[in-house]
Amino acid sequence: MKLTLVQFFFAYLTVFLAIIFISWFMYERRRNRAEHRARRIFICGCCGADIADPGRSLRLRCRSCGASQEKFTLKEK
Ligand SMILES: [Zn+2]
After folding, report:
1. Distance 70 CA to ligand 1 centre (A)
2. Which domain covers residue 40, as residue numbers?
3. How many CA atoms lie within 13 A of 7 on its CB side?
4. What strands, in cross-sheet order, belong to the sheet with 50-51?
5. 33 Cα to the center of ligand 1, angstroms
C-alpha cells in the first residue's frame, strides 16, 4: 500500500487531532473530579468537626474526637 502525500497528510492530521482531543477530554475529566472532591465536606456526627478534603484516604477518622467513618455525614457546598 502506497500513500500519496495528501493521504499521508490527512492521516497525520487525524491522528494529531485525536491525540489532542483525548488529552483534552482526560484533562477535563480530571478537573471535574477535583472540583467535585473539593466541594465535599464530611461532618462528624459526634462533635460536629468538619473535614473538607480527606484526600485519597479510604478510612475517615475525626481529628477532634476520633470517631470512625460511620459517624460522618457528607455535605456538598
Ligand atoms: Zn468528631
Report:
1. 11
2. 5-76
3. 4
4. 50-51, 40-44, 72-76
5. 26
pLDDT tens readout for residues 41-66: 999 999 999 888 777 777 888 989 98
Cα-to-centroid distance, 41 and ligand 1 (Å): 13
pTM reported for the whole predicted model:
0.56
Residues 17-44 pLDDT 10s: 999 999 999 999 999 998 888 888 999 9
Beta-sheet strands, E only, within the chain: 40-44, 50-51, 72-76
Nearest to 46 by CA among 29, 69, 26: 69
Our count of domains for the chain comes to 1
